[in-house]
Specification:
It is built from three helices and no strands. By secondary structure, it is an all-alpha fold. Helix 2 packs antiparallel against helix 3.
Length: 114
């Protein structure tokens, strides 16, 4: 389960600090796909578990204190903010494959030097 401000690929930054001011993401070769898939699977599993717990608590809102709600929002908000990185990494791999395969044409994304 991935919780907090660190993810398996180490791209999270504290709230309020723009990515470019804190650290540049480390792009990975396609051989890292299993690691990325595992990180995404973990994020999904964690989100599903939290959703199930919150759904069970819905009819009894008094069981959730402000701290717990804040912690859930912070942890999953951080994960949500990190999704751009995964999207960009997957897009880079796709673009390299398309460009290397000579499939660059109408309606196909252009690599842009990646």
């Amino acid at each position: 389960m991935l919780v907090g401000t660190q993810t398996a690929v180490g791209i999270s930054v504290p709230k309020g600090i723009p990515m470019s001011d804190h650290r540049v993401p480390q792009w990975h070769p396609i051989s890292a796909l299993p690691m990325i898939a595992q990180a995404l699977d973990g994020m999904l599993e964690s989100a599903e578990e939290v959703l199930q717990s919150l759904e069970q608590a819905r009819p009894r809102p008094h069981v959730l204190d402000d701290y717990t709600i804040g912690r859930v929002r912070e942890a999953h908000g951080t994960q949500l903010n990190d999704l751009w990185w995964y999207t960009e990494q997957l897009a880079k791999w796709l673009c390299r494959k398309l460009c290397a395969g000579g499939h660059e044409g109408a309606g196909t994304p252009v690599c842009g030097g990646d």
